[in-house]
Design brief:
Layout (H helix, E strand, L loop, with lengths): L14 H18 L8 H11 L9 H10 L5 H5 L12 H14 L5 H11 L1 H10 L1 H8 L4 H11 L15 H7 L10 E6 L1 H7 L1 H13 L2 E4 L9 H5 L3 H20 L3 E4 L2 H15 L2 H8 L1 E3 H11 L14 E5 L2 H4 L6 H7 L4 E5 L16 H18 L3 E4 L2 H11 L3 E2 L1 H8 L5
Parallel strand pairs: 1-2, 1-3, 3-4, 5-6, 5-7, 7-8
Length: 429
């Protein structure tokens, strides 16, 4: 494996080696340009090189760093790129950018506000636990109407004051799950471990409730794992490899026995699913991580697998279903290369589905930061235009962060596909 992508390699955190690899990859990208319109990083890269008459080696560290800073890890270039492994050029632009962030972190090249923002945005379980307990106060404080506090947050920790943040729920999903009256699952055909993710656990448990109800309607018995935490994506994307590996190890330890017993590990948020499937095996390099990754599914992905390979799901949709849906395909779901399973699932209800696959400009925590806010809004403008053109009766998307950004831009509510399926089954909201 190339030094670029192997975090265990002795040269992974070596900055001179990184600069050489950035030069090599930037030269290949400059000669190809297929990814020009995917994100701001590529126009910045190509303009910098063109301004030097094609002299890639003449790029300064500052110019290279700007490209790194403008990459928000959507990973769509990995899908588009013709030179990904096992091609002899061995090019994986997103992982190279993550390596650059890791080197920056390891060499202590971050500002104080960057460090504070990383700590705040990465400690999702601590923040979520406290915020749910005091959800009324937390949501009021985090609202964009709370101008003084939000401006103070922007100044101290670098979170854009104008950015709408997802509100916190009054009750955690896991608390609801453990206290509910568990129904008898008729015609049980499969078992699933629901990995709730921070968004379901602390912010939108309604999605998790609908997921459980839809699964149980189709003979899939659900359980919750003990000892899991946030998937660790905020640590990884900020370059804190050590914290990420500790988090990944803890989650793999909690999930591996369930995976080896034949349970599907179901993750309803695309970024978290991608991290478990792709990043855990790479950073931990253990059989346990591979086993967990191999058992992990997106929510709609697993339901469609049951539909095709385990006797089919119920098509008795006696509840309300929209005539048309505009479905936003999140970047990190596209990057999993599993197809548009949510679209296929929605079509089973008889609804007409229009897919838009423009980026929301959030991508983890990138769009939260004040230095990226205006650029993030510019990226999201393409998505807004695609949504307006589609004219779907209902908006739907799998990613809670992207959905919040879409609501911010359009003032329309966005439903997770599983929520639409639940209503079509007649399951009450």
């Amino acid at each position: 494996m190339a030094t670029t992508y192997d975090p265990s390699h002795a040269l992974y955190f070596d900055e001179p080696d990184l600069r050489l690899e950035l030069t090599r990859v930037f030269d290949l990208c400059h000669g190809c340009r297929l990814c020009l319109h995917l994100c701001p990083a590529f126009p910045t890269l190509f303009n910098s090189i063109d301004a030097r008459d094609g002299d890639v080696e003449g790029l300064t560290p500052t110019e290279q760093n700007q490209v790194v800073d403008e990459c928000y890890q959507c990973k769509l270039c990995y899908i588009k790129c013709p030179y990904i492994p096992p091609h002899e050029w061995d090019l994986d632009f997103p992982r190279l950018m993550m390596r650059a962030n890791a080197v920056k972190k390891r060499n202590n090249h971050q500002s104080s506000s960057e460090k504070l923002a990383d700590q705040l945005l990465s400690r999702t379980d601590l923040l979520g636990t406290v915020s749910v307990k005091f959800s009324g106060l937390a949501n009021k404080a985090l609202s964009t109407d709370s101008t003084l506090l939000r401006k103070a947050m922007e100044k101290v920790v670098g979170i854009a004051a104008q950015r709408v943040l997802p509100p916190y729920a009054k009750q955690r999903f896991s608390v609801w799950f453990k206290n509910r009256i568990k129904p008898f699952v008729e015609n049980r055909r499969a078992t699933a471990v629901i990995y709730p993710t921070c968004f379901i656990e602390y912010q939108e448990p309604a999605i998790g409730k609908d997921l459980v109800a839809v699964y149980e309607r189709n003979g899939i018995e659900c359980s919750l794992p003990d000892g899991v935490t946030c998937c660790g994506a905020p640590w990884l994307h900020s370059g804190d490899v050590d914290h990420f590996k500790k988090t990944a190890e803890k989650n793999v330890t909690a999930l591996v026995s369930r995976a080896r017993q034949g349970n599907a590990i179901v993750v309803s948020q695309p970024t978290c699913a991608y991290v478990i499937k792709r990043d855990y095996p790479l950073y931990l390099q253990s059989q346990e991580a591979k086993d967990v990754a191999g058992a992990t599914y997106d929510a709609a992905e697993y339901l469609m697998d049951v539909h095709k390979n385990k006797g089919g799901i119920s098509l008795d949709f006696n509840g309300p279903a929209p005539a048309s849906v505009t479905y936003h395909a999140p970047c990190h779901l596209q990057a999993q290369n599993i197809g548009f399973k949510s679209r296929d699932l929605l079509k089973l209800t008889g609804t007409k589905v229009t897919v838009v696959n423009k980026c929301s400009g959030i991508d983890g925590t990138w769009g939260y930061r004040k230095e990226n806010y205006e650029l993030s809004k510019k990226v999201a403008s393409g998505l807004v235009k695609a949504i307006e053109k589609s004219e779907g009766e209902v908006l739907s998307g799998d990613c809670h962060l992207a959905n919040t950004a879409i609501t911010e831009e359009t003032e329309r509510r966005v439903f997770h596909p599983i929520q639409i399926i639940a209503r079509a089954y007649g399951i009450k909201e």
